[in-house]
Write a structure and sequence with these properties.
mainly alpha
Length: 311
């Protein structure tokens, strides 16, 4: 009881301190939130919303089962994942960060996969998607490099699921038939669910931007890192921003020198805001295993990008 009471007090103190800091740094938090809101309206919603609705519609109508049927043997015998994994894997690589987690959570809620299978599937279904990479990750003058970043991130996820396949048993064959059903109500529900997902994503991005306003006002994080790694604070701050919210990566190319493989590694990890979004949609299983898997996947994305990129 005492430990619970102490934990509650510490949480209350932390929240109060955060609120006080936002009031003190109101100009910086407002400026960052305004920029983030503009990013959501001009980049995030146009690049993600339509794919979010389409992805949810594919699950609710069972279209994903029809798509995955030709690849069932790949999922079961090579990747050692349920037959439903491969289409979800493909959708998640193209759709964007929280879409894969949302689809896996929906399948787990409906009893189509177990919580353990959901945790394993999520490890390799976290990716930015080509539209997100082109819109957010790279500067206009190097937009042609976005394809290499996409291949590196998706390749790292595929490599990860292949290397860990020996730890899993071959799942049994599903006897459920892929009956595709489509109706106006399913379409309307998918549009509504997609709008809710985008509201959550954009809300998280704007809030993290406000937190960045506090860090910008204090400048303590950049100063501490600068002393630790002997690097100018002005060049550290953009990396801190991107680590917290990966959509800030587009600003790094104007502030510091970032290689394409480094951008691939950062996009493979996803940023703290992305993982908070994933946690918010994972109701019946833990996403912590997937978070830990992002570290080796990020390293793999860096190496793959260096190998496939021209000099």
């Amino acid at each position: 009881m005492k430990e619970t009471h102490l934990k509650g007090r510490l949480q209350a103190i932390a929240l109060t301190a955060c609120a006080a800091a936002m009031i003190w740094a109101c100009r910086e938090t407002a400026a960052e939130a305004k920029t983030a809101a503009g990013l959501c309206l001009t980049v995030m919603i146009p690049s993600l919303y339509a794919f979010t609705v389409l992805s949810k519609l594919m699950i609710s109508t069972n279209t994903y089962k029809l798509i995955g049927r030709p690849f069932s043997w790949i999922s079961r015998y090579i990747l050692r994942m349920p037959a439903e994994f491969f289409p979800i894997f493909l959708i998640s690589q193209f759709a964007g960060y929280p879409i894969g987690a949302s689809l896996i959570s929906q399948m787990e809620t409906e009893g189509k996969i177990t919580p353990k299978q959901a945790e394993e599937m999520l490890c390799f279904c976290i990716a930015p998607g080509p539209a997100y990479i082109s819109a957010v990750a790279v500067a206009p003058d190097i937009a042609g490099m976005s394809g290499y970043i996409f291949l590196a991130v998706a390749g790292a996820n595929l490599l990860g699921v292949l290397l860990t396949s020996f730890t899993r048993k071959i799942p049994p064959r599903s006897e459920e038939k892929a009956e595709v059903t489509f109706s106006a109500s399913l379409f309307t529900e998918s549009v509504r669910a997609g709008a809710e997902s985008m509201a959550m994503i954009c809300g998280m991005i704007i809030f993290m931007a406000a937190v960045m306003g506090i860090l910008r006002a204090f400048g303590a994080v950049s100063a501490l890192l600068s002393r630790a790694i002997k690097y100018p604070p002005a060049q550290i701050y953009p990396f801190v921003r991107s680590f917290l919210e990966i959509s800030n990566l587009t600003r790094i190319f104007g502030d510091v020198t970032v290689t394409i493989p480094m951008a691939a590694a950062m996009l493979s990890f996803g940023g703290i805001c992305v993982h908070l979004q994933i946690m918010s949609v994972c109701r019946g299983f833990s996403p912590m295993k997937a978070l830990l898997c992002r570290i080796p996947c990020s390293a793999a994305a860096f190496l793959i990008c260096r190998l496939i990129m021209p000099d």
